[in-house]
Amino acid sequence: VGVQDFVLLDSHTSETAFLNNLRKRYQENLIYTYIGTLLVSVNPYKELDIYTVTQMQLYRGVNFFELPPHLYAIADNAYRVMCSEYNNHFILISGESGAGKTEASKKILQYYAVTCPTTEQLQIVRDRLLLSNPVLEAFGNAKTLRNDNSSRFGKYMDIQFDFKGAPVGGHILSYLIEKSRVVHQNHGERNFHIFYQLLEGGDKDLLCWLGLERNPQKYAYLIQGRCAKVFSINDKNDWKIVRKAFTIIDFTEKDIEHLFGIVASVLHLGNIQFEEDSNGHAIIRDGTQIKWISKLLGVHLSILQEALTHRKIEARSEEVLSPLNVDLAFYARDAVAKAIYGRTFTWLVNKINGSLANKDSTRKTVIGLLDIYGFEVLDTNSFEQFCINYCNEKLQQLLIEMTLKAEQEEYELEGIEWEPIPYFNNKIICDLVEQKHKGIISILDEECLRPGEATDLSFLEKLEEKVGDHAHFVTYAFTLCILSQRKLFPSLTHNRVLGREQFLLFALHQKFALQIFFCFVPKKVKQPAHCLMLWLCSPLTPGKAEDIVKRSLMPQAVRGYINIFQESIWVATQFKNSLTSLIEILMSKEPSYVRCIKPNENKEPGKFDDYLIRHQVKYLGLMEHLRVRRAGFAYRRKYELFLQRYKSLCPATWPHWHGPAAEGVERLIKHIGYKPEEYKLGRTKIFIRFPKTLFATED
To answer: Which Gene3D superfamilies has this protein been placed in (predicted)?
Structure first.
């Protein structure tokens, strides 16, 4: 149905032809299509019988293009090349929330678990690799409007293999857990799964020890989205899987006890209410929740009271405690909850890494799985969306650069002349965000650290001053002359003048402007810093679970006030540095790519929303990638494989050709009648320029 490889589309520059081919295949449950060696995957929103052990064995050890496109072909190809060439690989899985990234990652892990060599000892490693997923999903995934199991963090997992090709260990890196979800959820969304799993699945004695009731409606942090119970999610069953996973991953009962004590303490924190005393200061009249927190975390009541209702300031070279008003006390409470949860997640990842670590010092090869958030374009995009979309711009840059590099190297290796390929280089977008001293992140750092009053507006004024004339940046000052912008950028579609607190970034992919309205800070407000800054600045080493809490609550960490968006300064810089490290890791490995597409917003099987998919094709740079792959030759294949496939078309090569394969192919294509402009003969491969030439040969 259609073509299995977009490279073979006659109208390869036509977005309509691209979508038509995708639709044809999707309607026949053919959810996978190649662009060269890149796999495009469309979420079917239903179970398909294509992930059986029989299917796994079918793709095992088979040449990449011999069978129809499949996730297993990507996994097997990376594995076979790693084993034969003894080099490292990575598989980058990207796409919007709800496109199927997490499922794709799990399917690849399962493929290696079934098809790789094993022993009884290795089976333990294999089980730990597989069962690390439900634990990370419980603490890092949540129901959103787009997806019932949306990853709210980025994950890179290295699977380590020994010289026999057996999986012997692993290591996980996590990126930007969405801590704001702990204290706030939009309508129709939930907090992280673990809270609901604990209440629904935890036994009566455990809940009693934690001071919890089974009804999630009792907890302020769980009901803001007004959908604590979801028909499609079985929290009780998921709880059983997570509890089993903890025992396999080598968590002690003490670890688990501390961990659930922390989870419960976050729920108790959300139920703390503040009242105003006669001096306008915040006080906690009902001490029930704070007593539970004190018991569960082993933190003295006075330290908790101080962290939630006071800040430290300097007065005449001395530190004094200054009481908070009610509004600031609520911000302090939420900051503590986010700090504790963020540190708990980091501790959890470190603990899992400890159980996956391979102590053997012999050399190993790795296949990395990168399951990373896709572009998120909402009506108003927060700081987290800014980081997510910056990450995607960096990965798009990497994809194009590595594809171009691979193409150029193959041409040079085969002795075929390389012709430069025109493409949109998004380095200009990445520089706008990350450039030293001039980029948005550096300006944010600078503005937050400068003496005096820094606000959202002063930050945006600084942006206007430093990057206001950038072709891909628009703020309030420039939307006043919207008509002149339309002459410069006809594809710019927004009709409103930006608010003073907003700015707009857009990337031009040919005639398409990807517009993202950002609003870091919806209102000017201050909050106490002491709960945040140690969590943001100090490194977390694997240790006792209760240390997470004590280090998150230390009030002496930082003095005074910060603006609410000052949290962004540290997170942005850390995220940029983490992303730079990740890119370096990926650049040292051989790449494979899986681009996941969400076919509709309602998770309906069989529904293909053209408008939604067209946008994703643009965001994911698929047409750009296709253009790079098709700029020279649409098809290339090793002489031996080409001859094996088509030798029956020429009397001289059928049934057996006894000379070198290259000479056999030359004889074969002369007999068929290939014209000189239709092909080139390399050192080990034939290169065919036009799809129609190949299709005619197939016919």
So the answer is: 1.10.10.820, 1.20.5.4820, 1.20.58.530, Kinesin motor domain (3.40.850.10), Myosin VI head, motor domain, U50 subdomain (1.20.120.720)
